[in-house]
Amino acid sequence: MNLSFFDQFMSPYLLGIPLILISLLFPALLLPSPHNRWITNRIPTLQSWFIYTITKQLMTPLNKKGHKWALILLSLMIFLLSINLLGLLPYTFTPTTQLSMNLALAFPLWLATLLTGLRNQPSASLGHLLPEGTPTPLIPALIMIETTSLLIRPLALGVRLTANLTAGHLLIQLISTATAVLFSIMPAISILTACVLLLLTILEVAVAMIQAYVFVLLLSLYLQENI
């Protein structure tokens, strides 16, 4: 029984072909097709408002040099948000529960922000490794600590996203299994458990949106330090 709970996190295969590639491309189907008008109905209007709000939120702390990253960060936000929300539907697979995928997204973008800082302002970027006014005996230890904290940033990004989504999916499956088992034995308890499941599902929708936003927000903060 315990092993079956984790089967939902295994990448599905069809004729030996991993279907994770299809699940990654599926969010693109939700985007509206090009039209000769700017706004055709309420859905593009809502999408435009959402894109404007997220872009303004992410780009406000950055200077003009950081605005070049607007398209990358916004695309990543929409991509993660779509995958996280689609993964909550029944009989679907959530690619963002795979640590390898999240690290593949976090590491290159973190490295790009780091290299941008080393290229544009190397002194300021390296200065973050040693706080001003540090006593001389503590300099080697602080440099090692700050370097370690810098290098584990992409790992923290990937693990945070993976752990939150994985925990939420496991809780949903556990409570839904308990609801189905108790329905024939104790219907009243089963109805109460179903109410808890509904509240948990609403909470997981919020978590899916928040985790996508936090992932991109932290990348924008890393970029802010290096421009």
TrEMBL record:
It is a multi-pass membrane protein. Belongs to the ATPase A chain family. PANTHER family: ATP SYNTHASE SUBUNIT A. It catalyses: H(+)(in) = H(+)(out). Component of the ATP synthase complex composed at least of ATP5F1A/subunit alpha, ATP5F1B/subunit beta, ATP5MC1/subunit c (homooctomer), MT-ATP6/subunit a, MT-ATP8/subunit 8, ATP5ME/subunit e, ATP5MF/subunit f, ATP5MG/subunit g, ATP5MK/subunit k, ATP5MJ/subunit j, ATP5F1C/subunit gamma, ATP5F1D/subunit delta, ATP5F1E/subunit epsilon, ATP5PF/subunit F6, ATP5PB/subunit b, ATP5PD/subunit d, ATP5PO/subunit OSCP. GO terms for molecular function: proton-transporting ATP synthase activity, rotational mechanism. It is found in: Mitochondrion inner membrane. It comes from the Eukaryota. Keywords: ATP synthesis, CF(0), Hydrogen ion transport, Ion transport, Membrane, Mitochondrion, Mitochondrion inner membrane, Transmembrane, Transmembrane helix, Transport. This is ATP synthase subunit a. Its main location: mitochondrion. The keyword Kinase does not apply. GO terms for cellular component: mitochondrial inner membrane; proton-transporting ATP synthase complex. The chain crosses the membrane at residues 12-31, 69-89, 101-118, 171-199, 205-223. NCBIfam families: ATP_synt_6_or_A (TIGR01131).
